[in-house]
Amino acid sequence: MTQRGRILSRHLTSDGVVVWSRCACGRLRMDLVPAAGGAGLGAGPCPHRGGGHASSVSS
Ligand SMILES: [Zn+2]
What we know:
Number of helices: 0
Organism: Actinomadura montaniterrae
Order of helices and strands: EEEE
Oligomer: single chain
Bound molecules: zinc ion
Protein name: SWIM-type domain-containing protein
Strand order of the largest sheet: 1-2-3-4
């Protein structure tokens, strides 16, 4: 439960698990985690998918 963002719901589909989550930036995000494994797909307006580090350089 320490992932960035917050999972709102999960739906099991024939392709895998569709996860809706709210990113730390506040945007809604959808990710498909393939049942067969491998890289997931992401969709949504948020660019911070994939657990990437939204690096805000504080000077
Ligand atoms: Zn985001």
